Amino acid sequence: MIEVNNIHKSFGDTHVLKGITTTFEKGKTNLIIGQSGSGKTVFLKCLLGLFAPEEGSIVYDGKVYSDLKEDEKRNLRQEMGMVFQGSALFDSMTVAGNVKFPLDMFTKQSQSEMEDRVNTVLDRVNLVDAHNKFPAEISGGMQKRVAIARAIVMNPKYLFCDEPNSGLDPKTAILIDDLIKEITEEYNITTIINTHDMNSVMQIGEKILFLKDGLKEWEGTKNEIFKTENEAVTNFVYSSDLFKKVRQMYIEERN
Amino acid sequence: MNYLASIGSYSMMVVEVFKKPTKWRIMKSLILKEVDELVYGSLGIIIFISFFIGAVVAIQTALNLTNPIIPRSLIGFATRQSVILEFAPTFVSIIMAGKVGSYITSSIGTMRVTEQIDALEVMGVNSLNYLVFPKIIAMLFYPFAIAISMYVGIFGGWLAGVFGGFLTSADFVSGLQTDFVPFHIAYAFIKTLIFAFIIATIPSFHGFYMKGGALEVGKASTTSFVWTSVVIIILNYILTQLLLG
């Protein structure tokens, strides 16, 4: 579980996060949504420890991040997996090399143990014939799956995903969403996804946090988002005609 | 103020490079890869340029020796001094600032743009140690390249001087042996080692701390070449004053 208590973050004169308080529960897919410039990425980078908030605290299963020593912070980071928007795979390594990298860096496993683990996670993300290919040789969807495999190879407690569906076709996006949800439940990890994709919100949003201008505007589940009267949320989530109709149908059904 | 801030950031980066080392098993393969990329991969251009510059120095000296009192062996002497004292350590280092420096900046800069450095940081890897330390160690082999440059430069001078009909081989060798100061070789290698560190770290700094996209990677490569060259030239002056002055 991750508890966020009143965090503030500024860059020069720009106050990006203006006091966010929330909780992300274990074994659930938590989604952060909001317009571009609402502070989602900065918030995620604060959660990852890449940015230090000026005020407030982030608590990872009882450990206050700002109170940890540098070594303890690095150890905590080894319990985090991250899927970047552009996958961020290492160009110079093969798919298997990318997935093996954290094991190579932080464990004392033998080569055969590491290879077994790499095969297991690559099988888990349904990548069987791509072990020796380089990232440039595989599709965007496959790259995302490699990134997920790399993120879970160390059995993380926390999984962070920044726009995991960006640049993917709708079908592949749904596969990636389902995969993340399945992995979250299977490994019982705290998953936090930064997304613009409303399909993801409707499909896997067990908890949704809506940010606006650096503040928490709304939070709830995917079912609650249908019922909300919050204008900022409805304007954002139901901005497309398709989702407007879906909501209309939901309200009519309810009445 | 910006320059001071950059110098401060650069110094902090250098300190950070030596903290929390990566596992030796992984570091060893990274170092070997960098030796191959940075030093071995540059030998071709170093040999090519050294040969022709040595030849040109010999011809230029010969063409400017109009006074019959001055012995022709001076051509060998001038070639040796130019190549060992300045051409091989300084001129080649500036070329390397372009070739190796732009490679370092663009490769690290691309990793920054594509979030690969963030990925390392999130995993808890000291990205500066992982990326920059192998380059610094690989560049310790750079003096070997400069030794080859010295040899090839002098050989080019001998070939151009003798086969161009400017002097005999015996005169050239005699010039090479005239007033030889062994410390000049040490001076050249001291400079080379310091320039090697500069060539490894300044381009890394520009790549690591760059912001923006692909266009900025190109700009960072250019900026890193300019600053690496400027620092090499200023340090060349300071080291010459300190070691030979």
Automatic annotation (TrEMBL), chain B:
InterPro entries (alphabetical): Permease_MalE (IPR030802)
GO cellular component: ATP-binding cassette (ABC) transporter complex
TM annotation in the entry: 38-63, 83-104, 140-168, 180-205, 225-244
Keywords, alphabetical: Membrane, Transmembrane, Transmembrane helix
Top-level taxonomic group: Bacteria
GO molecular function, one term: phospholipid transporter activity
PANTHER family xrefs: ABC TRANSPORTER PERMEASE PROTEIN-RELATED (PTHR30188), PROTEIN TRIGALACTOSYLDIACYLGLYCEROL 1, CHLOROPLASTIC (PTHR30188:SF4)
Name the UniProt record assigns to this protein: ABC transporter permease
